[in-house]
Amino acid sequence: MEPLTTPLDRYVGLTRRHFFKSGAAGIGGAALASMFGNQLLAASEPPAFAPKAKRIIYLFQSGGPAQQDLFDYKPLLVEKNGQPLPDFVRGTQRLTGMSAQQASIPLAGSQFKFAQHGQSGAWLSELLPHTAAIADKLCFVKSMFTDAINHDPAITFFQTGSQIAGRPSMGSWLAYGLGSDNENLPAFIVLVSAGQGDQPLYARLWGNGFLDSKYQGVQFRSGKDPVLYLSNPDGICRSGRRAMLDKLSDLNRAQFEQELDPEIESRIAQYEMSFRMQASVPEVTDLSTEKDATFEMYGADSRKPGTFAANCLLARRLAERGVRFIQLYHQGWDQHDNLPKGITGQCQETDQASAALIRDLEQRGLLEDTLVIWGGEFGRTSYSQGKLTQDNYGRDHHSRCFSIWMAGGGVKPGTSYGFTDAYGYNIADAAGNPLTADKHIFTPGAVHVHDLQATILDLMGIDHTALTKLHQGRRYRLTDVHGHVVRDLIA
Q1: What distance, in Å, lies between the first and last C-alpha atoms of the chain?
Q2: Which of 72, 133, 335, 408 could bond to 67 as cystine, CB 3.0-4.6 Å?
Q3: What value, to the nearest 5°, has the Cα angle with vertex 1 and ends 28 and 157?
Q4: Is the per-residue pLDDT at 43 higher than 50?
Q5: What is the DSSP code (8-state) at residue 231?
Q6: Which distant-in-sequence residues (6+ apart) come within 8 Å of 265 by Cβ?
Q7: C-alpha closest to that of 174 among 184, 162, 159, 163
């Protein structure tokens, strides 16, 4: 299968060297770009095969939620609470510098009660009553693993497929491959919960990398101006803005005719998008039209702009309007100490709204073709970082196994995929025997980050090995040179 490209690659991606090399074909391409301009830039390559999902809402829980306290029930940890982590469990795995110097690494059983829910019998903590109520709509993946053990490279890896900054983000790849279903809103929109956590988030996490700049994520904020620098200054009316953009477009097109630089056409397209967004953004971000029953479903926080709950409600409104990729970030899950109190607060902020989003999408007929993903960049250790007491413990970073969940968009509902050992420290088979999880070799039951990314693209109708971009002499892709579609997750 040939690498999946966009019309930008084929017609507009011209340089002087390419122009003279291509001869008549180059002249034809330039003429086509001149004739169709924005239509070519807005066009998209059809999916490689029929998609199960049309859009994605990714509820990213930044900091690393502790799977042992939420989804991965481990009664043995409670039984052996305070005892040292056995050497045979850890093996040769590294520890972070935050717990490597501890005199002991005592096992820490969860302080929270677990119960099975729904016909699927999914185990969930008492911290997640609303999520538990929709357990049969969810597909849990309990055998995720990643390469990174620190926040920045781990989050970057999830969002871009590389621990090194500079690659295109997942939303940018999808915008590049599929385009947008709404010409008045960006294909990729980012929402960040206000005032959460101390782990920084960087705009490069939703950046376009080496893809065209029009594929970067656009962050919406709470407040009077949801998108920075979008509103007209005082004294500038909409007709005046239109006239200015028309003149600017003429100048840019004249420059394009001289230089054949595709970024000039992209610049024109982004100016036009910004102009249309001056009307579309105020409409979509105005939650006052929502019914009281909807706010009650999402919880009291949904009436407070910038909260996770309000952003979940806004995400549904964006999904209704055809936005391709909607990324929510909620910080604060990095509980190295005082975990019982900290994780309780995090769940109170996210549980009801996450479940409400699933219900809301379903009752509006959107869940079937909307893929919702919930999870962080890695998991937490089964031992306590710092001193373990009767009512307090912390958990360090853990990359070897953790849990996420997905819903809608073609995944199997009421499913729990993968297992961890009795200590919750390693991926295991159904009998509890540890599996050797390696990103280079696909191991059934284990899901590497690149496997998840490959599966997400598959659900969107894209072969992950075909969505590529030629950059500096090689073709790059979201999954680098790894990744396998996990068919057992797909309905």
Answers
A1: 24
A2: 72
A3: 100
A4: no
A5: S
A6: 12, 33, 37, 38, 41, 256
A7: 159
How many Å apart are CA 110 and CA 112, to the nearest integer? 5
Q: Can you read off the two tokens belonging to residue 260?
A: 């054949």
pLDDT at 46: 53
Yes or no: say if 441 and 125 are a contact pair by the CB < 8 Å rule: no
Amino acid at 137: K
Tell me the pLDDT tens digit for each residue of 152-209: 999 999 999 999 999 999 999 999 999 988 999 999 999 999 987 677 899 999 999 9
Cβ atoms of 176 and 7 closer than 8 Å: no
Name the phi and psi angles at 200, rounded to 5.
-70, 150
CA 176, 181, 184, 185 torsion-angle sign:
negative
CATH number of 55-94+115-231+291-489: 3.40.720
Inter-CA distances, 423 with 97, 158, 164, Å: 22, 25, 32
Tell me which residue of 421, 380, 422, 383 sits closest to 402, measured CA to CA: 380
Give the integer Cα–Cα distance in Å for 485 and 141: 14
Which residue did the predictor score with more confidence, 15 or 126?
126
Of 165, 174, 235, 175, whose CA–CA distance to 205 is shortest?
Answer: 165
| E strands in 150-282 | 188-192, 218-220
Residue 442's pLDDT is what? 84
307-312-313-319 Cα dihedral, nearest 10 degrees:
140
Q: What one-letter code names the amino acid at 333?
A: W
Q: Which of 4, 19, 2, 476 is nearest to 262 (CA)?
A: 19
Mean pLDDT, rounded, of the chain: 89
Confirm if 84 and 104 have CB atoms less than 8 A apart: yes
Residue type at position 140: F
Beta bridge partners of 268: none
